[in-house]
Each structure stands twice: as C-alpha cells, then as structure tokens.
Amino acid sequence: xxxxxxxxxxxxxxxxxxxxxxxxxxxxxxxxxxxxxxxxxxxxxxxxxxxxxxxxxxxxxxxxxxxxxxxxxxxxxxxxxxxxxxxxxxxxxxxxxxxxxxxxxxxxxxxxxxxxxxxxxxxxxxxxxxxxxxxxxxxxxxxxxxxxxxxxxxxxxxxxxxxxxxxxxxxxxxxxxxxxxxxxxxxxxxxxxxxxxxxxxxxxxxxxxxxxxxxxxxxxxxxxxxxxxxxxxxxxxxxxxxxxxxxxxxxxxxxxxxxxxxxxxxxxxxxxxxxxxxxxxxxxxxxxxxxxxxxxxxxxxxxxxxxxxxxxxx
Length: 314
What we know:
With 314 residues, this protein is mostly helical. The chain contains 12 helices and 5 strands.
C-alpha cells in the first residue's frame, strides 16, 4: 500500500487512545507522536535541557505506565528499536532521551511538501496534455483520471489548509487566555493546559459539564497541577463510562475516581520512592557537611592547644 496520511496529535486526547495496552506498532507510532517537532528548552528538576527535533524526553517508567507494559518490556522494545537503527538512546543523570532516527522521513516540512505536491501535480497535468495530443483515442479515459487526481489533490490541500488555520486559531485563543491568567498570578503553561482540558471535556464529554456542579476553571487548574493530562482524560472517561454523571459534583467525583485509579497509584508510589531517595541523598549530604565542620573545629582546637601538629602544606 502506497502513500501516507497525516495524524494530528490530538488523537491522543481520545478516551480510547490510552484505554488498552499498546501493541508494538502502536508504541512506535506513539513515539513519533511524542517526539518534538522543533528544538526547545525544558527544565528537569531545575536543570535546563534542550530537546531537539525528533527527541522524546520520557523515562522508561512513564512509558511503561502510558503503554500499560512492564518496565522490562519497554526496555527490550527500545533496545530492539535501537538495534534496528530506528532510535538512539541517551541516558544521563538528568534525563533519558530517545531520538527518532530519520525523523524528517516521518514528519515532512509543510512548505516543502506543498511545493513538491504542486510541482508533482503540474508535471502530471503536462504529461496528460502531451498524451492527449499524441493519442486521441485514449483522451477521455486518461483525462478523467487526471481530473479526478487533480480534484482530489485540491480537496486534500483545502482540507489541510482549513485544519491548519482552525488549529492555529484555536491555539492562539488558548494562548491569549493563558497569558491573561498569567497576570493573575497563574503560570501561563498551567493556564493553557487548564483551558485545553476544559475545552476537551466540553467537546468530548458535554454530559460532565451538564452535571449539577460542573468543572470550573479553577478546579481544572488544581487538577493540572497534580495530574498529567493523560490521567485527567482517562479518569473523566471512566466517570462517563460508569454512568457517574448523575452525581452532584464533577470535581468531587473525579477526586474519588483518582484515589482508586491503579495507574495513578503506581505513579504515586513511584514518585514517593523517588522523593524518599532524594531525601536520603540530602540527609547524607548534610551529615557529611556536619562531620566535616565538626572535624575542622576539633582540628583547629587541637592545633590551638598544641595537642595536634598542623598537617604539612602540600
């Protein structure tokens, strides 16, 4: 089968996208969707890291939760992809980075693609005209085919143009609202995420917003500060699928569901483990500092009293 289709990243917002364990091919497509389309900086534990085009900055643990796999299966899958030359993995004490090899093969530049399509269409039309002049008997059949191809190309281009404009305007609207909330002391990124989640709930599950006490913007802000976007969408879908929109409060119902969600429990356990490790490291560091200070004081007192001879200078 020839040709290709474009898939918008918003497909990940569909409740069925993360509803079941991923296949290997599904995981590969998910990596392509997660990969950065442009170079930009992110902060990991306060350290700035530059994500390049085609990079996926996500740990094995997070991928395992997202794909509903074991961490061992994720590691074997990524190692096989690296062995086949499809990805490259870079690990550091700051972040784990997965780079999609030949990323531009999977994600074309829209301007270059449009130019190439126009050139291809022009060449097709020229060939059709020459064929029509040379072979009159075949003109109706080939002309019809070329007209159909040209019409389909124009339709696709118009659809893509509309989708690009619609998506761009939607993003600008959310971005403006996010910056407006930033002046109220709300970080722009959190405000943008909250607006996007609230818009998704209104469009995908309007029955949630028809509850007696629907989600407010402030409540969704609280949610995005505590949960990942994928987790929020999954729990909202569970509320609808289990018929709990008859409850009074959307926010209270969400909190109840989130408290017993298995994936969220695993994330909380993992986060608590990491926090415990960080606390242990910090306590060890402080103990070393205290020991060094105590040693220096004893050493200085010993020299002052003459009980200790100064160490020779090196």
